[in-house]
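Sequence in, structure out.
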Amino acid sequence: MRKQTAVTLLAISILLLAVVSFVLVRQIDTGTSGLFPSQSGRMPEMGMNPNMGMGGEVTTELVTSTEKEKELALPPLLEGTLSPDGSISYTIVAQEGSTQLKEGNPTQTYGYNGSLLGPVIRIRSGQKVNIQTENSMDVSTSFHWHGLKVPSKVDGGPHNPIEPGEAANLQFTVNQGASTLWFHPHAEGIAGEQVYEGLAGLIYIEDENSDTLPLPKEYGINDFPVVIQDRFFERDNQLDYARAYNPDGIYGDTLVVNGTINSYIEVKNEKVRLRLLNGSNARNYQFRLSDNSTFYQIASDGGFLNEPIPMENLQLVPGERAEIIVDLSSYSTGEKIKLMEEDVPVLALTITEETTEEPSSLPTTLNIISKGDDTGNPDKVITFSGMGHMVAIDGKRFDMERVDLRAKVGTTEVWEIDNAPDMMGGMIHPFHLHGVQFKVISRNGNAPPANEQGWKDTIALYPDDSVRIEVTFPEKGIFMYHCHILEHEDNGMMGQVLVE
């Protein structure tokens, strides 16, 4: 009897193996089939993520581009309409277009007020802002203001879609300090595709402190926006999201910075400010300078740190920002230093002119941010887990009709966010919380690194990490928290907190 049972089990195992093999072979043949459709209706590939190894490590490597070196494209500074009362109005249009990214065919892309990416929106602390958002694309979208402390009806999450041909007017008052934020789509199930196709723009907030600090602030002269993204181009230079799709995130082999491949800037031998945004769908970056010299981080997601932090390496996960100062005063005309991602050039800084200004030191004090309190028990514990289609927060996938957490407006809470490892080791999940800037108060029971001790809205959660943050919601409404690997977000690795 036991022998008969064993034979039966072996036959069933062989049959299951044959079925799985057939599915995998068919996937390889067609590149489109699978068992679980994505929320956008496409059929993603099954099996192990080709961008990742068994432990979640990325295996799709970036390569140095062979494209001719090009001067870095600068997003235009959007001109708003200033009213007598000091309020300012802007119009932002999501649209389709084509962009000459590589030699050969232009690439079909999305953009805000243009064919790719978007302009820089400049606003001031305390200012009233009106933004007319319009969707001229043939698909639904939303406008999420990543890092802005705004009411939930303005936030632009999945509750606020804008259909093709429709528009919405947003009004809010800026109630936070100087910082570099960004905006991008956040419609349910399709954010990854729309960001990948080009929808992303920057927001600069200025205030009296930023006005007076002796820092580089001449746009395109010594103060540069640097939006870093990785893309995979098909043979005809197109971005085929369905073909590149993987539920654990898309990893391209080509770096695109401000829509420029193999980019450079021409600068004087002075201090240069780079406002870095990891605008990629999934890739984490490790930045350094080509000569391994020291640079200084002066700001994180939500604004200035208390003091400049000397660094030789900087990690940014998707959605995360950092402002750094590169001091070129010891370099001569004709020399070049590169911002690198490991061994791949991100941006070349070419010294073309000697400065006539006397070199000055960085200010020793940039901001005054108190440390959070990590002496008690957390008010909330949130657990991220899984990979691919099995991602979850607290064992659940996103349901727009379900309230996952509740909080009181103006009440400070301590949240503990955990990243549960799995049998394959797990992977980094970038945690992002809407509607606030929070403080990181501990990592695994220890004080956070110095460059995480400013205002944050996005942080890295490493496998088996336990991070505590201090949160105070300034506005009522429903706000999202989620993994900022956009494919994980689209697959339901997201929850919502009701602030009352």
